[in-house]
Amino acid sequence: MTSEKVIEVKNLVKKFGSFVANDNLSFDVYRGEIFGFLGANGAGKTTALRILSGLSKPSSGDVRVAGLDIYRHAEKVKKHIGYMCQKFSLYEDLTVAENIMLYGGIYGLSKKIIENRASTLLESLNFTSYRKNIIGSLPLGMRQKLAFAVAILHDPDIVFLDEPTGGVDPITRRQFWEMIYKASSDGITVFVTTHYMDEAEYCDRVSIMSEGRIVAIDSPDELKKRYGASSVQDVFVKIARPSNYSPNNN
Amino acid sequence: MRTILYLIRKEFIQIFRNKFLSKAIFGIPIVQIVILVPAVTFEIKNIELCIVDMDMSAESRQLISKLQGSDFFLLKHTTFDEKEADDMLHADKCDMILHIPENFGRNVVREEKEKLMVVANAINATSAQLAWAYMRGILQDYNSELKVRSMQSNTPGRLSLIETTNRFWYNPSLNYKYYMLPGILVILVTAIGLLLAGLNVVREKEIGTIEQLNVTPIRKYQFITAKLVPFLVIGLVDLAFGLVLGKILFNIPFNGSIAMLFLFAAFYLIAVLGLALFLSTLSSTQQQYLFVVFFVLMIFVLMSGIFTPEESMPLWARRFNIINPTAYFMRVIRMVMLKGSGFADVFQDVRGIIIIGIATISLAIWRYRKTV
Questions:
Q1: Cβ count within 10 A of residue A34
Q2: Does the CB of A79 have a partner CB in chain B at under 8 Å?
Q3: The overall pTM is greater than 0.95
Q4: Number of independent structural domains in chain A
Q5: Do B14 and A91 touch (CB under 8 A)?
Q6: Chain A residues with CB-CB distance to B218 below 8 A
């Protein structure tokens, strides 16, 4: 982790009609870190992540990703990022090898590089024997790991993961996080949304969102210290509770 | 360019891995051609005729035997009771009543003037009109025979009847199969273009894979091209398949240049695919898309002149056909196949379809958004 900023967000606002999904967000993410984006369902995590990955346009605010302004260089940004969303996005009717070949080709990698990287990543995942299997025939955990591997196939600066471990068993989740650590140690910045609080403990820094705002941002240890909590889970419950649930409201 | 090739390859793998689709692409043309080409005909044979002959003269019998001799009429019943004949028409037991009044024979010979009454069931206006046209033809024929006979008996020497002979150019035997097969092929190609390509894109939206493509640096024109080319190829292959089938099954003539037809078909498919891709950007579910395309397809095909000649449509409908790509293809495929028209004959249609193609493809590229 360095002090070089790969994501800079200043006063980001995203409105859908009168509903404010992202209310004046400002934060930075540094190269090589694992940045956890926490929040309850509907807190605005996915909205922010979609803006950062170029799938959605902000209503206002300054956003720079991989050093590029997302308004002016939306398409250039896409060469530098990887993306994997909660909805599984590899082609289910293609084989493992065909998916890898397709995305490698889209990012303009040469056939030789794609084949080299494919065999390395399949070996590291112990998936070599599944090369010719249709994705749809593989179990969910395996697909999620593959989707992640494909998302970083082109060696991006940043990879965005939107609830990547949703619905996955604990063992696979653990293996998934090992992949995240490996990617991070290779210099890829990992931007991950989750609502599993144990996963938040694995992050270098986390931000906690509530009702479209960032209510806390720091390393898990600092947050625990500041709020006198024993885990990020406790911190989360203390500060991320939506206002209409608060007893003070009555 | 390489990106496009990777994407096209993916589309082909997906289409041919889909067990149903890969069979349907070749199964549907067979079913369409085998069923529709021989079935859809405007020709009317065996019009069931009920005759009320109140005369029973030599002349009336002559007329009746003339009707019986024709392929078009089938004498179902003869009666003296008008009511019985009316009842038969009501009960749909006959299609037409010919009423021959009393003294018909005497009057035509002596006064040279007589009236017949024909009643036709016009629930289907087209077939009633056709039946009436056949009937009138036979009556006129009979009428002139009578005239000649009476004049010959009064004047010395030979008097000849003006005989008209007609030839039907481009389809001499008036074989409706020759007329329908090109039309059915147009429907086939149009359906492939509009349905397969559009549904493919909307399906990617539904399952979410399009989002994964949208976060990549893929360009809009690359996406559109990759979605267009596979269905262009399939459409042309199906057209070839249909033509071969038509030749084998119905011996359909092909008088023009095959290359010319396929070139035009390619332009046509690009125009239709552009429209399909444009419409797919407006729909978020396959249900929505199908609903819209069903109407587009119906309007395009029915207005194109497949069943009813374009020339007999109202002016506004003919004007609409300026933007109806199917009307261009319908015209060109029949001209090229039956008439052997060359490039110079269809030049205006080629120009028209290219303009429509540029318009729809531009719309599709413009409307395709990588962000929502």
A1: 23
A2: yes
A3: no
A4: 1
A5: yes
A6: 106
